[in-house]
Amino acid sequence: MNFMSDADSAGEPTGSSTAAELAYVEKFAVLLEHMGLVRMHGRVLALLLVCEPPEQSAPDICAALQASKGSINPALRTLTAAALVEKVAKPGHRRDYYRIKSDAWTQIMRTRASRFTPVIEAADEGIATLADSPPGRLDRLREMRDFYRWFDQELPQLIERWEQWQTQNRANE
Fold first, then answer.
1. Residue 87 domain-assigned?
2. Count: domains in the chain
3. pLDDT digits (tens, 9 = 90+) for 90-144
4. 60 and 119 share one domain
5. Of 100, 125, 158, which one is at a domain's C-terminal end?
6. 112 and 75, same structural domain?
7. DSSP for residue 3
8. At 99, which helix (H) or strand (E)?
9. Beta-bridge mates of residue 57
10. What is the secondary structure of 17-58 as a DSSP string?
């Protein structure tokens, strides 16, 4: 599979990956690992961000990353469950293919925002429980609660601004 080459008329890649392309995928995977993603998941995600065609089968991904099916399949399941990657069918093909899900980044932020409420509630409970405690203890809880409360309020507007910006930028391309 060639990450960034043209595909033939059947949509299949026409060449092999260059050392620079493979190095880029590995570098990006390490960056994602530092952000908390399992390295193999990062490798798969990085590959799907730059490959051509954008839809790849699990065997294609295994071959490109020189990795086993046993390491690629869990990565694909995790990335699919996280709504970063989606499984698609190609007409005339029996295999499943995977690609980066359209609007994945916005959806991830919306999903993460739903996790703020329990943190805010837990902080409020801690503040109530420790109401008679020294101010330093309460200050730490209040700061955390206030940060999540602020982010919870601001994130919908931030996503809306992103969508407007994205629409405007695409119109200008």
1. yes
2. 2
3. 999 999 999 999 988 888 888 888 889 999 999 999 999 999 988 788 999 999 9
4. no
5. 100
6. no
7. S
8. strand 96-100
9. 97
10. --HHHHHHHHHHHHHHHHTT--HHHHHHHHHHHH-SSS-EEH
Q: State whether 108 and 163 are in the same domain.
A: yes
Question: What confidence category does residue 27 fall into, taking pLDDT thresholds of 50, 70 and 90?
Answer: very high
17: closest CA among 63, 69, 56? 63
165 assigned to some structural domain: yes
Is the distance from CB of 84 to CB of 108 less than 8 angstroms?
A: yes
Averaged pLDDT of the chain: 88
* 83 domain residue, yes or no: yes
What number of residues does the chain have?
173
27: containing domain:
19-100
Residue 4 main-chain phi, psi, to 5 deg: -130, 30
pLDDT in tens, 9-26: 444 444 467 888 899 999
139 token code pair: 């200050």
Indicate which CATH number applies to the domain containing 128: 1.10.287.160
CB 77 within 8 A of CB 117: no
**pTM of the predicted model, to two decimals?**
0.75
- pLDDT tens by residue, 35-61: 999 999 999 999 999 999 999 999 999
Two tokens, residue 44: 């798969």
Q: Is residue 3 part of a domain?
A: no
